[in-house]
Backbone:
């Protein structure tokens, strides 16, 4: 594609050099730049891409996008200055990869908890309906049935548009995508056309990046502010920020709720460890999911599918065939009679939801033993809150290591223990070795008890000092149980 064709997607402030030049690749990483490429210098949180312009030119870049013109301009290179290189990068990547979202229906899911479950279940549901479908998620990306490994909840704009382009080329009709607050704030989704957006909930998370809950909320809200008029917004009325999210959107607003009148109304009729019986809009459906938070997630899936044109009856039939996402409230039964639950819960609210779901099924017939840690180099303020929430609903609590990253595990554990009073501390153990913590919890469990292992879910590694070591909570539990 010619550079001047690409530039039709943006409004440059200044252009120096010949734009009638062929562009055969676009990059934000100078190490990936090759002859004939356009290098786009973004100001990131870790590094400023402008510092890597010389490296990109050495690798053969024929054009540079920037917010600030370099002091020296290399002859034969086109320089394009813009007001916002993050926004421009997304729009140029979209155009370079053939505007893939004009050829498929893209639905974004945002919120603190439930994104992975809602997006993944919609992916499986629409494959059940017989469509080719794409998925962009925390656990794995899929081009129909082809897995594509993932590193981030929402990839960078180059990777994302390349992936969406491959999905469009493969004939995908729908794509369901988790949209993280980082991706919205960093404009990784600029240039994409969304057919709809779903809001699950909002609680404290990622304050290491956003600094305040208000900034975090604004990042989520911007996704809905930017939706076009022909798209739908589906928001959770049970969350106090549900209507805040859609107050300035041009999209068509719809609601779902387990508590009040809404376009999509749900109730939990029965609940046990094998699943729930639900009532959605006056129709009953049995599902192998547990907990009100999962009932809410399923209601969002139900509503989105109906808004995408499916009949309520066929959606309920499809719902009954779905199964929990890896690492989301996965139950393992011990031969000795206790149940272990593995869940990704890594925020105070998510822990509260999972523990509440467990108590809803137990009804006082067994004890709850919780194993939980907190990630290193992330929001420290939520650590004592997570410990408090876990202690409040657990009979025994074991504070352990999660992904310590570059922090000392014992320091993280200390931050969590600082949130507990004398009564809670009396029922709490701290065991830095996660394997040993899980083993201890299982040794404490008696028939009828529940062991909750929270925080890592689907992850099969522990990140320590920059190195990922294999570690899978489910594998450890099976070893201990056997």
Residues:
């Amino acid at each position: 594609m010619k550079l001047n064709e690409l530039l039709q997607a943006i409004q440059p402030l200044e252009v120096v050099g010949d734009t009638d030049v062929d562009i055969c690749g676009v990059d934000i990483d100078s190490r990936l730049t090759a002859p004939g490429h356009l290098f786009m210098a973004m100001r990131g949180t870790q590094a400023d891409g402008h510092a890597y312009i010389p490296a990109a030119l050495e690798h053969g870049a024929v054009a540079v996008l920037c917010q600030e013109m370099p002091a020296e301009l290399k002859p034969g290179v086109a320089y394009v200055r813009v007001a916002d290189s993050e926004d421009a990068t997304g729009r140029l990547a979209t155009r370079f990869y053939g505007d893939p979202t004009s050829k498929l229906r893209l639905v974004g899911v945002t919120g603190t908890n439930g994104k992975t479950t809602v997006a993944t279940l919609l992916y499986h549901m629409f494959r059940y309906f017989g469509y080719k479908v794409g998925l962009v998620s925390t656990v794995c990306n899929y081009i129909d049935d082809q897995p594509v490994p993932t590193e981030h909840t929402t990839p960078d704009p180059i990777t994302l548009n390349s992936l969406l382009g491959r999905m469009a080329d493969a004939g995908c009709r729908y794509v369901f995508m988790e949209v993280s607050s980082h991706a919205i704030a960093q404009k990784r989704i600029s240039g994409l056309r969304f057919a709809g957006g779903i809001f699950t909930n909002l609680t404290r998370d990622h304050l290491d990046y956003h600094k305040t809950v208000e900034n975090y909320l604004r990042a989520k809200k911007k996704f809905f502010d930017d939706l076009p008029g022909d798209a739908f917004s589906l928001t959770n009325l049970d969350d106090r920020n549900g209507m805040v999210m859609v107050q300035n959107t041009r999209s068509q607003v719809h609601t779902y709720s387990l508590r009040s009148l809404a376009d999509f109304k749900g109730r939990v009729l029965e609940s046990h460890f094998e699943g729930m019986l639900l009532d959605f809009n006056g129709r009953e459906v049995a599902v192998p999911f547990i907990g009100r938070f999962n009932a809410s997630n399923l209601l969002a899936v139900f509503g989105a599918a109906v808004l995408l044109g499916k009949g309520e009856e066929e959606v309920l039939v499809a719902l009954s065939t779905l199964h929990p996402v890896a690492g989301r409230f996965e139950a393992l039964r011990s031969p000795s009679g206790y149940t272990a639950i593995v869940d990704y819960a890594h925020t105070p609210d998510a822990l509260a939801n999972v523990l509440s779901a467990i108590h809803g099924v137990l009804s006082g017939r067994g004890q709850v033993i919780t194993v939980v840690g907190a990630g290193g180099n992330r929001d420290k303020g939520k650590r004592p809150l997570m410990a408090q929430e876990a202690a409040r609903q657990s009979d025994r609590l074991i504070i352990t290591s999660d992904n310590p990253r570059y922090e000392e595990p014992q320091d993280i554990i200390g931050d969590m223990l600082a949130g507990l009073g004398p009564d809670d501390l009396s029922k709490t153990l701290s065991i830095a070795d996660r394997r040993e913590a899980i083993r201890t919890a299982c040794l404490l469990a008696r028939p009828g008890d529940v062991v909750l292992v929270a925080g890592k879910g689907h992850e099969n590694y522990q990140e320590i000092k920059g190195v990922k070591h294999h570690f899978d909570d489910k594998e450890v539990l099976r070893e201990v149980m056997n």
Observations:
- The chain has a mean pLDDT of 93.
- The first helix runs from residue 3 to 6.
- The two ends are 59 Å apart (CA to CA).
